[in-house]
Design brief:
mainly alpha; about 130 residues
Length: about 130
């Protein structure tokens, strides 16, 4: 089984789980969560899966390309997240705290998932001594 085909379902399960957390926070507490927070996890799932595939493709060529691709992936995700937050907070000032905190938590969760799967894939590809 290809590593990307193992990663994508896990990323979408994480996105669904995070969307459920948002739903239950909204339903069971007095906290009002903006509707956009239901969609942010799925955007991160798509972005992280694409970046994961790109990093794997680069790592197949050489270790130096892996490092470059990984750093580019982290930078891309950070800049896209900051751009989204900047535009959203500029347009919806009243919702800035829940959206910023929620996006940060989702960003960290998907970054951990990306690094974990890259590590697992790297260990599978490394010959045992």
């Amino acid at each position: 089984m290809k590593p990307v085909s193992r990663f994508a379902p896990v990323a979408f399960l994480l996105a669904a789980g995070l969307a459920l957390v948002v739903f239950f926070l909204n339903a069971l507490t007095a906290m009002v969560v903006p509707t956009v927070m239901y969609y942010v996890p799925f955007g991160f799932a798509i972005l992280t899966a694409a970046l994961y595939a790109n990093v794997l493709k680069a790592s197949a060529r050489s270790a130096q390309r892996f490092v470059t691709a990984f750093m580019a992936a982290v930078t891309t995700k950070l800049l896209l997240t900051a751009s989204f937050l900047g535009v959203y907070i500029y347009n919806f000032k009243m919702q800035k705290v829940p959206v910023a905190l929620g996006t940060f938590i989702i960003y960290v969760a998907f970054t951990i998932l990306l690094v974990r799967y890259l590590r697992i894939t790297g260990e599978e590809d490394t010959p045992q001594r």
